[in-house]
Backbone:
């Protein structure tokens, strides 16, 4: 047996002794804490105070004597030491120099006892003396040592007195604690002991005992509760005795009741036997299937109608359970007998002896015992297989109709033919439970060049025979003879059921899974496009009428989509060819423009110089003829290009508000010299107010120039008048009236047609291409206006332009005539005298152009000419030019646009103007050049004045 440890012995002590021990330990700990902690903390505080005081004294003393030590003033030093002797706390004071030679002192013997020379710390404590040392400094220089000794007698006496006082206090605390412990034992332990004695007496059987404790504290409350508990025990004992007497009487009465109940139960069992006989008669004689199932799902009873329905004998049914026979209609549906409260009606599948599923209408009724617990389930089954199959057939037909509707909708709405057909045959395959559906195109369809080709197909991945028809690549059309192929092309279908008549069909079936298949030709507008082949691949042996109808309808829809796709591809092919022809035409016109304009700059430029620079009349006359012929060629070229742009709808007008008077007047001024040469009067009659119309002024000027030019051309004598008048409905009329030859009324419509004139053929009276009025009419309509003509043969014609005008002058409407006509008035370049000539770089690979431009600019500018991009990059790297004239077609290497981008990479050339001078003269060309870093554009051929004007505009000399 293990010895009890100290803690166990403590638990076995009486409550009184436990409290005495605990209180004694607690009081002893408090007294010990007071006796130890307070003297120690007071001694520590006094020591710290003395340390601070000593450090202050020695620092103050060092500060006061440092001048005397530094100047070796022994007299002053002696007085200061004598002054320190008056302090009772000083035991000694020693002052030495830096070599520790004595300078002044008092009580040297005491200092020697303290061994002051060997102490170099700031402060140290011995038993009765606090030793202090510091260096004597003067302006950061150590000049000596100061040693002080402070007495600790007062501190030690104070600490001894404190320890005595704390000892007395600790004794008092211990005595008071002992008294408190004794008092607590009286007021707490006495009532507890009394309760323990009373409880022991009651436990021995003396229930008359009660406690006399009357206090209101916890012990008193416990005593009161204890007395009440004893009272309740006494009362319960008395009640138990009374209950025993009453129980004997109840037993007698209950025995009599049981005898009566047995008699009543016998009568009820007789009634139940009669009810059960009636139930069995109804159960076994019912014309519908009935079975009785217990709570575990086991079939315990069934009627003959049920056996007939499932085709089983009694032995087969006896081993089955409810869930073996009745299968829920949906896999997600749960048919749990335990969850049925009273009656449940639903449809379910019934498995018969051949494992064939019948459809039954199920009614389940719960039979419960008297405690309302289920004991049996009566299951009534009505065979509804025929009606269910009819319903499924109707649903299947509706589903197929929806499939056809969805397929037709896809083929009509989906722009992607391949995706639409693939989705449609996938929908048909899944709906009809096919193995494979193939769309086969005839030769020449959708890029198919030779023979019939399987364009697309769908394969049922869930079919167990899929490997056969996945590996088989043969087409049914390939095994047909000529008569069969001719029949298919004529629109006849081929249907093969499970047992094909022809041997080649049977062999083909075996490769596809030995199922039914059908081939539907696609005939649109008597045109054979191909066929669709539906293979069941073993899933069906034949097609019913509704399936055949659906297949034929869907095939017709696919045939229509196939014809549409064929037409679409033909349109795309035609469009592609048209775009190629248009591109060839555009390239031809661009090349023609470039190749004709480039030599024209030499013809027009030098002919202009012959007229202006030579005084010889013959030379001047020849130059004028050459210039006139060149301008006629240029005009013809421009008209052909303008007509080409109009036909390709590449002309995009820049519409803005423009004041019309100054624009028309400048056009008239341009033709004054031409009219004067024919001795005609050319006048301009403006309206009373200056109107603003929204137009593209460049296009408008070309329109008006064509009409004025025609008026002068077809007038031999008389005059040409240009008028501006207001018309009704806020329209402005610009009329060109001449006294020329006039036009026959039958020819008024002809003159606006391409390449047509009033007089045509080899005997025509006037030169021209017949494009001026065509272009003018189309330009006018492009600007939102219209053109009308009135003419009398022999008297003249009146061509009138109609444009809508604004009610008032719009802010921002400008007279941009200078931009259009300003070049005609600039005959030379002038710069301030004394200013260095601007440096200009010309990049052009045509020698004639370079020589012509050199002859025009050399008198005014420092001109550098290079012929390719490589030379240009070299010279711009060495010099900075003020302006660059850039041709676009530079032969091999970089073209003008690419060269401009390279030059712009040079920081100092970012602000330098670069002007395109090129024979690429369309508006789109101009926009491209300006977009790629060029500042301005001048189309070849150009006149001297046009070249001067564009240089003057972009180069502003200082």
Residues:
């Amino acid at each position: 047996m293990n010895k009890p440890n100290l803690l166990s012995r403590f638990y076995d002590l009486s409550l009184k002794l436990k409290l005495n021990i605990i209180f004694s330990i607690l009081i002893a700990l408090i007294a010990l804490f007071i006796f130890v902690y307070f003297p120690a903390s007071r001694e520590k505080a006094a020591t710290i105070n003395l340390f601070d005081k000593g450090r202050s004294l020695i620092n103050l003393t060092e500060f006061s004597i440092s001048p005397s030590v530094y100047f070796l003033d022994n007299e002053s030093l002696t007085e200061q030491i004598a002054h320190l002797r008056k302090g009772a706390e000083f035991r000694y004071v020693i002052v030495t120099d830096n070599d520790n030679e004595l300078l002044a002192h008092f009580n040297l013997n005491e200092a020697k006892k303290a061994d002051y020379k060997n102490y170099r710390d700031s402060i140290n404590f011995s038993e009765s003396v606090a030793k202090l040392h510091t260096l004597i400094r003067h302006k950061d220089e150590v000049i000596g040592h100061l040693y002080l000794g402070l007495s600790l007698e007062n501190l030690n006496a104070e600490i001894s007195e404190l320890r005595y006082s704390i000892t007395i206090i600790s004794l008092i605390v211990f005595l008071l604690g002992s008294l408190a412990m004794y008092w607590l034992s009286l007021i707490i332990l006495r009532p507890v002991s009394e309760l323990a004695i009373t409880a022991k007496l009651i436990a021995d059987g003396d229930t008359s005992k009660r406690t006399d404790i009357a206090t209101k504290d916890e012990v008193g409350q416990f005593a009161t509760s204890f007395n009440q508990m004893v009272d309740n025990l006494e009362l319960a004992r008395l009640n138990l005795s009374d209950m025993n007497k009453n129980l004997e009487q109840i037993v007698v009465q209950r025995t009599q009741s049981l005898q009566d109940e047995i008699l009543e139960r016998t009568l009820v069992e007789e009634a139940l036997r009669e009810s059960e006989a009636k139930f069995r008669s109804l159960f076994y004689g019912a014309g519908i299937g009935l079975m009785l199932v217990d709570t575990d799902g086991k079939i315990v009873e069934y009627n003959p109608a049920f056996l007939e329905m499932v085709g089983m004998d009694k032995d087969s049914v006896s081993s089955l359970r409810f869930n073996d026979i009745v299968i829920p209609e949906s896999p997600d549906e749960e048919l749990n007998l335990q969850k049925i409260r009273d009656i449940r009606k639903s449809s379910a599948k019934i498995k018969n002896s051949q494992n064939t599923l019948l459809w039954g209408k199920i009614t389940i009724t719960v039979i419960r015992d008297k405690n309302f617990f289920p004991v049996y389930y009566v299951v009534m089954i009505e065979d509804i297989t025929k009606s269910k199959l009819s319903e499924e057939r109707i649903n299947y037909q509706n589903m197929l109709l929806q499939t056809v509707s969805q397929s037709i909708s896809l083929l009509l709405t989906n722009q992607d033919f391949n995706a639409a057909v693939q989705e449609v045959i996938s929908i048909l395959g899944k709906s009809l439970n096919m193995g494979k559906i193939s769309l086969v195109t005839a030769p020449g369809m959708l890029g198919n060049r030779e023979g019939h080709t399987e364009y697309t197909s769908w394969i049922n991945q869930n079919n167990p025979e899929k490997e056969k028809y996945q590996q088989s690549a043969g087409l049914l059309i390939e095994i047909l003879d000529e008569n069969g192929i001719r029949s298919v092309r004529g629109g006849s279908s081929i249907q093969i059921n499970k047992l094909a008549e022809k041997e080649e069909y049977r062999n083909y079936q075996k490769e596809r899974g030995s199922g039914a298949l059908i081939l539907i030709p696609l005939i649109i507008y008597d045109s054979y496009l191909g066929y669709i082949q539906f293979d069941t691949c073993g899933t069906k042996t034949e097609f019913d009428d509704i399936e055949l109808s659906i297949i034929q309808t869907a095939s017709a829809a696919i045939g229509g989509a196939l014809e549409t796709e064929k037409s679409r591809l033909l349109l795309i092919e035609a469009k592609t060819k048209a775009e190629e022809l248009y591109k060839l035409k555009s390239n031809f016109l661009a090349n023609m423009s470039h190749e004709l304009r480039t030599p024209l700059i030499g013809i027009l430029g030098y002919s202009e110089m012959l007229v202006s620079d030579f005084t010889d009349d013959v030379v001047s006359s020849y130059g004028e003829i050459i210039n006139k012929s060149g301008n006629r060629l240029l005009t013809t070229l421009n008209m052909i290009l303008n007509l080409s742009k109009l036909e390709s709808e590449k002309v995009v007008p820049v519409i803005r508000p423009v004041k019309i008077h100054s624009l028309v007047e400048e056009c008239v001024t341009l033709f004054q010299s031409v009219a004067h040469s024919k001795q005609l009067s050319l006048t301009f009659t403006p309206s009373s107010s200056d109107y603003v119309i929204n137009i593209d002024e460049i296009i408008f000027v070309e329109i008006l120039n064509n009409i004025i030019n025609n008026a002068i051309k077809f007038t031999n004598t008389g005059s040409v008048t240009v008028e501006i008048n207001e018309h009704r409905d806020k329209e402005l009329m610009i009329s060109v009236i001449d006294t020329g030859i006039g036009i026959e009324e039958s020819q008024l419509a002809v003159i606006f047609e391409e390449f047509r004139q009033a007089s045509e053929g080899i005997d025509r009276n006037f030169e021209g291409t017949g494009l001026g009025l065509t272009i003018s009419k189309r330009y006018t309509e492009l600007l939102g206006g219209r053109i009308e003509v009135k003419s009398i043969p022999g008297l003249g014609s009146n061509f009138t332009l109609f444009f809508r005008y604004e009610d008032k002058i719009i802010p921002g409407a400008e007279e941009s005539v200078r931009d259009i006509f300003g070049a005609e008035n600039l005959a030379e370049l002038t710069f301030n005298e004394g200013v260095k000539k601007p440096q200009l770089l010309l990049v052009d690979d045509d020698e004639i152009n370079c020589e012509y431009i050199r002859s025009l600019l050399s008198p005014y500018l420092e001109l550098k000419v290079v012929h390719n991009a490589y030379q240009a990059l070299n010279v711009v790297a060495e010099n900075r030019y003020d302006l660059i004239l850039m041709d676009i077609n530079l032969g091999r290497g970089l073209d003008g646009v690419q060269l401009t981008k390279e030059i712009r990479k040079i920081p100092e050339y970012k602000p330098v103007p670069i002007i395109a001078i090129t024979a690429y003269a369309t508006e789109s060309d101009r926009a491209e050049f300006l977009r790629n870093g060029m500042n301005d554009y001048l189309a070849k051929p150009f006149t001297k004045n046009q070249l001067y004007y564009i240089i003057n505009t972009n180069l502003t000399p200082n």
